[in-house]
Design brief:
α3 runs parallel beside α4. A hairpin with a 2-residue loop joins β3 and β4. About 40% of the residues are buried. By secondary structure, the protein is of the alpha/beta class. It has five helices and eight strands, in the order βαβαββαβββαβα. It is about 35% helix and about 20% strand. It has one domain. The protein is globular, with a radius of gyration of 15 Å. The N and C termini lie close together (about 5 Å). This is DUF523 domain-containing protein. It comes from Shewanella avicenniae.
């Protein structure tokens, strides 16, 4: 049996890759279990796409991603998302746990592009590309659901 792997936003695993140079480390039994099972694939699409850390905050505005200063960084976000899909396929990823609200990783809700902390329905660039590739996505706010999904997947795959 080859158990599917789980791609996780690198910031959630303690990597200091956020736009402000910090992390979003979370300690959760699911992530600890996956780490023990060597099923985690850590990934930051913004760094993979060539953005520096720290970097200017960015949000989606329609089909573009722009910084707070108005610089278009869409191409770097798209490159990072494409590299995430390639990594996921190469590593046999079946599920992703991603940073909520992020313009790359947000699942179901992202900031509206006004830099006013207003949320709208939508997915980050990488989250959408992973979903299009058939990979189930969850945010760190949905770890109970993610754990149940993975347990069901593992039971079917067994």
């Amino acid at each position: 049996m080859s158990r599917g792997k789980v791609l996780v936003s690198a910031c959630l695993l303690g990597s200091a890759v956020r736009y402000d140079g910090r992390d979003n480390l979370i300690a959760h039994p699911l992530l600890q279990q996956l780490q023990t099972q060597q099923r985690l694939v850590s990934f930051c699409p913004e760094c993979a796409g060539g953005l520096s850390t720290p970097r200017a905050p960015a949000e989606q505005q329609g089909n573009r991603v722009v910084t707070v200063a108005g610089k278009d960084v869409t191409a770097k976000f798209e490159l990072g998302a494409d590299l995430a899909v390639q990594t996921a396929q190469r590593q046999q990823v079946v599920m992703a746990v991603l940073k909520a609200k992020s313009p790359s990783c947000g699942v179901g809700q992202i900031y509206d592009g006004s830099f006013s902390k207003t949320l709208v329905n939508g997915d980050g660039v990488m989250a959408a590309r992973l979903q299009a590739a058939g990979i189930s996505t969850f945010s760190e706010l949905q770890l109970t659901e993610a754990s149940a999904w993975l347990a069901n997947y593992d039971a079917i795959d067994a």
